[in-house]
Every structure is written in structure tokens, then in C-alpha cells.
């Protein structure tokens, strides 16, 4: 086992992936990314799938994996992207090709507030109001009209 001074693990790399909730498998993109660092694929897949079972199947979950030289790892999941949540909440299949010129759907301020409550845990140093403002800006940028 590779240890640094004082017995701490040595950092070997950072892996960022977006994996469907409950669907982590040794196939791409997970397998090649973790295999490159020599990490145990099945340990990650079982743990990730168990942790993300609270989400609807196929929800894309951003995950950051910290690899260590002793072939161990730690990972942190984030909440689904704002764009994914906007699609679910508004019911649109595709966002506008020309945002600002075309409106493809509507979303309520209440739905945006609920998204902000969820996304707030990922956004450090941002107030709830700031989070709401960012989601409103994103909604407008993808062609959604914000309604009361």
C-alpha cells in the first residue's frame, strides 16, 4: 500500500463522470475511466447504484471520483443538472434552437423554487435567491417562459 508521510493516502487522480442513476456498470463510461486508475469497478458500481436508487431510473447524476495510489477511491455525487430538471418540470423534449426568439414551454416560479432548494446543496456560497436567479436565467436561455 502506498502511503505518504504520516500514513495518508497519495492522490492519484480525479475522475468526473455523469452516470445514469442506478445504472452504473463496468461498461463505458465507468469501466474505462476507473480501469485506467486501477480501481475496483464493482465496488464503485454497487455503492453508486445503492446511493442513487432514490432518483428516477436513468436520471443523469454527476459524480466526482478521487482516486488514490493504493487503488482506493472516494466519490461524491451531485444533484441532477438544472437542464435535466427543467426538462422534467416543463415537460419539453427539446429546448429552443433559438432562445430568446422562440418559446418551447413554460415553467412556474414555484417549480423553479423547488429546484433551487434541491440544487442549493451543490452551490456553496450562493444564497437561495441567487440560486433561483440562476435557474430563471437558465430557463430563459433554453427557451422556457417563467410564469407565476
Automatic annotation (TrEMBL):
The protein, known as: Large ribosomal subunit protein uL11m
Pfam family, any one: Ribosomal_L11
GO molecular function: large ribosomal subunit rRNA binding; structural constituent of ribosome
GO cellular component: mitochondrial large ribosomal subunit
Family: Belongs to the universal ribosomal protein uL11 family.
Keyword Ribonucleoprotein: yes
Keywords carried by this UniProt record: Ribonucleoprotein, Ribosomal protein
NCBIfam families the record matches: L11_bact
Every Large ribosomal subunit protein uL11 N-terminal domain range: 15-73
Coiled-coil region: none
Residues in Large ribosomal subunit protein uL11 C-terminal domain copies: 78-146
InterPro entries: Ribosomal_uL11, Ribosomal_uL11_bac-typ, Ribosomal_uL11_C, Ribosomal_uL11_C_sf, Ribosomal_uL11_N, Ribosomal_uL11_N_sf
Keyword Ribonucleoprotein: yes
Organism: Hemiselmis andersenii (Cryptophyte alga)
GO BP: translation
